[in-house]
Every structure is written in C-alpha cells, then in structure tokens.
C-alpha cells in the first residue's frame, strides 16, 4: 500500500518531509472556475501555478493524484442550458458540482476542459485522476444539506424530464412528472415495478456521468488509474426494498442516500466494466466506524469472507467495511482516505467523530486490512501547520510512525 496526502501543495520542503516519512503520492487539487473563468478563456497565470506544482512533484519523484475540480464549475458553465440541477420541490442546490448528469452542454464544456488540462499539464507523473459528480467531488447527486428541502430529488429539469438538451446516451424519466413519495401518477396508483424502474433510472444516470468522464479521459490518451470517490454505504439492498414499497417517501433512508442516488450494488457493477477504475472510500474512521467499533462484538474491521456476506444483513457494519467488500466483490480496485478534521466542511463530522489524531491512528490500519492499494491522509496542511501537533493534533512525524508500523508489523 502506498501512502500520501490530500490537498497537496508539491512544495519542495514538504515533499522532502513526506518522502522521509514514507509517503510517495499527493493529491493535487484544481478548480475549474479558476482554470477557465470565462468561456473560451484560460487563466494562464493559474495554469502556470498548477504546472509548477506538478513539475515540483515530478522532480521529487512523488506521484500525483490529479483532481481536475469539476466540483467548482465557473458561472458561465452554470449558465449553460440545463447548467444547474432542479429539485423535485423546485429547489436548486446551493453547492453542486458541474451538472454532468443530464446536461449535454455542460458535458461539452467539461470535455473541452479535460482536453485543455491534459494538453497543458501532460501525463507524466500522474498516478491517478479523480472523477465525481457532486460538490465534494464524489459520486452522487446533492444531499439533504446541499439546498432545497428534505427529501428533494434532483432530476426535474427540462433535460431529465422531457429530453430537452439531454446528454447523449441517456433516456429521460420513465415517469415524467412523477415526484418521489407520490402514490399516483396520471391518476393511477403507482406500482412497485414503476418505482423500481424510476429508481434504477435515477441512480443509473448519475453513475453514467462518471462512466462518461472515464471514457473522455481514455479518448484523450490517459490510460492510468481513475479514482471514483464514494462516501457512506449508499442504499442498502434491504432498505431499497422498503423504500420502493414506500414510493421513496423518505422511509429507510437514514443518511439521505436516496436523494443522492447511491445504489452501490448496481453502480459498482457499472464501474467494474471500465478498465483501471478504483473506488476511493472517503470516510475511513468516520462516525459509522466509531459506532461499529462499540458494537459487541465490534463490526468495524474488514474480515476474511466479507465479500460473501455483503448481501446479507450488514446494518451493524461500518461503512468502509461494507463498501470495501462490495467493491472487491465487483472486482474494483480500492483506495481510501480519512474524513479530515470533524469541524471542517464536507467531512461529515459530528460530536461522535474521532479527532484527527485518532483518525491518523485508525484509518491507515483500516485501509491495510481492507486490501486498499493507497491511503491518502486528509489533509497535508494539517501535518505542517505552524506549531505542528499543538495546532492540529498531528504532525508529519506522527504519520511516519504510522507508516513504519504498518510496513513493519
């Protein structure tokens, strides 16, 4: 297993310290809105900044996981036809990635952006490229905290409902006008089969956007690994059955996975058909781990035989144990990262969450036990803050000790 950091800067002094600690890869984040602030216009200063960082990593012999930053679309992209998702209650997400799920125009813009990035930066030294669809850069639609109302689904614009400006290869809603939770459609009772078909379309459309990105990268000549960040467990099979019976009215939906369109059983099967794809679990030692560890017996750690049990009752398992087993079962590669500081945005922190120091102790071990090929610590800045351990509770020396312990048990 290789070790690295999220939010890398490729600063030479930090790279030297990370290499001494045993880390060999950094995630280098980019932002689409900074790269292409106007349609047809590239900010050459920003391009030069990213290229310089990438070159510093190359010269240091440190691999780069490139995050193109589609979760930060420029305003002109949001202004394209279908450029913003529309909710079932009329809402719009306050934070969202580029609307790559349904909008043909947004996909064309992203296609051009990918081509510019790979042409400007080159492929040397790039260990992997991350792709996703939501504001966190992960697979899925916006969640309950991203705007709109509780229980709002995100496929109600002209493209998904009527096919106007719909991305190639997608079908419009099999039940146009039907809103999850409704018992009728066009004056008739809605059947389980209809709800299941609508759910399959909704979840299938969002994973199609990820598959499309992988395909575009391959067309541009990139043949390396592609990381697809995922969080949580998605909709468990037993919960999906209950949700369908309830017409997706909010039952059996403890963490908003239904609105996010997360059906990992089916979606991982789609990803497994794409060469070179790794599932990147973003919540090693998240709240679910804390709770699963407290169970009797503990249910937090990956165990031999999990792949065969993953379709049984796994409600007591930690999220990473379930999702890792599901990915292995599908034949996908696995990488992982801890959530990061529990009081930071997008980390899913709660009063139950472990501190960053506790995450550093536990998360790499979880990654090792689950057979992951890479662990990325969140985040680089936390290892190098002024004052070091006094500020964040961790330091690069702490990371070194963890890496040495795992490599020399």
Provide key terms for this protein:
single chain, 409 residues, alpha/beta, two-stranded antiparallel sheet, globular, GH, Glycoside hydrolase family 42 N-terminal domain-containing protein
Description:
This is Glycoside hydrolase family 42 N-terminal domain-containing protein. It comes from Paenarthrobacter nitroguajacolicus. Residues 332-356 are annotated as: Disordered. By secondary structure, this protein is of the alpha/beta class. 41% of the residues lie in helices and 11% in strands. It has helices at residues 12-21, 32-35, 44-60, 75-78, 104-121, 158-162, 192-219, 237-245, 257-260, 264-272, 287-293, 306-309, 319-330, 356-369, 380-384, 389-392, 396-407, and strands at 2-5, 25-29, 63-67, 126-130, 184-185, 188-189, 225-230, 277-281, 333-337, 374-377. The strands form two sheets. An eight-stranded parallel barrel has the order 1-2-3-4-7-8-9-10, surrounded by four helices. It has a two-stranded antiparallel sheet with strand order 5-6.
Backbone shape: globular
Q: Nearest-angstrom radius of gyration?
A: 21 Å
Helicity level: 40-55%
Structural class of the secondary elements? Answer: alpha/beta
Structure summary, number of beta strands: 10
């Amino acid at each position: 297993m290789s070790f690295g950091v999220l939010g890398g800067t490729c600063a030479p002094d930090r790279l030297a310290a990370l290499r001494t600690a045993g880390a060999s890869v950094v995630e280098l984040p980019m932002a689409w809105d900074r790269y292409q602030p106007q349609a047809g216009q590239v900010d050459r200063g920003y391009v030069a900044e990213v290229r310089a960082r990438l070159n510093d990593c190359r010269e240091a012999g440190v691999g780069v996981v490139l995050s193109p930053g589609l979760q930060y679309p420029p305003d002109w992209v949001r202004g394209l036809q279908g450029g913003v998702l529309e909710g079932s209650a009329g809402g719009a997400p306050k934070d969202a990635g580029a609307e790559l799920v349904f909008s043909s125009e947004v996909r064309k813009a992203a296609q051009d952006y990918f081509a510019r990035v790979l042409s400007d930066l080159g492929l040397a030294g790039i260990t992997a490229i991350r792709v996703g669809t939501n504001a966190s850069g992960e697979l899925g639609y916006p969640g309950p905290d991203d705007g709109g109302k509780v229980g709002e689904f995100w496929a109600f614009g002209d493209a998904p409902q009527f096919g106007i400006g719909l991305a190639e290869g997608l079908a419009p809603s099999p039940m146009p006008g039907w809103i999850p939770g409704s018992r009728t459609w066009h004056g008739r009772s809605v059947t389980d089969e209809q709800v299941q078909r609508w759910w399959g379309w909704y979840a299938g459309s969002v994973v199609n956007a990820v598959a499309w990105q992988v395909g575009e990268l391959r067309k541009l000549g990139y043949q390396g690994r592609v990381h697809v960040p995922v969080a949580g467990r998605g909709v468990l099979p037993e919960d999906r059955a209950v949700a369908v019976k309830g017409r997706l009215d909010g039952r059996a939906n403890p963490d908003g996975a239904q609105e996010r369109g997360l059906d990992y059983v089916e979606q991982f099967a789609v990803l497994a058909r794409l060469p070179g794809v790794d599932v990147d679990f973003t919540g090693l030692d998240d709240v679910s781990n804390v709770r699963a560890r407290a169970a009797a017996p503990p249910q937090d750690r990956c165990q031999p035989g999990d792949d065969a049990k993953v379709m049984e009752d796994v409600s007591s398992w930690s999220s990473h144990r379930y999702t890792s087993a599901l990915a292995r079962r599908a034949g996908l590669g696995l990488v992982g990262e801890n959530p990061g500081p529990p009081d930071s945005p997008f980390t899913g922190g709660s009063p139950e969450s472990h501190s960053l120091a506790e995450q550093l102790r536990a998360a790499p071990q979880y990654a090792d036990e689950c057979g992951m090929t890479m662990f990325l610590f969140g985040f680089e800045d936390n290892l190098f803050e002024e004052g070091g351990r006094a500020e964040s509770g961790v330091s690069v020396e702490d990371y070194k000790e963890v890496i040495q312990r795992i490599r020399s048990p």
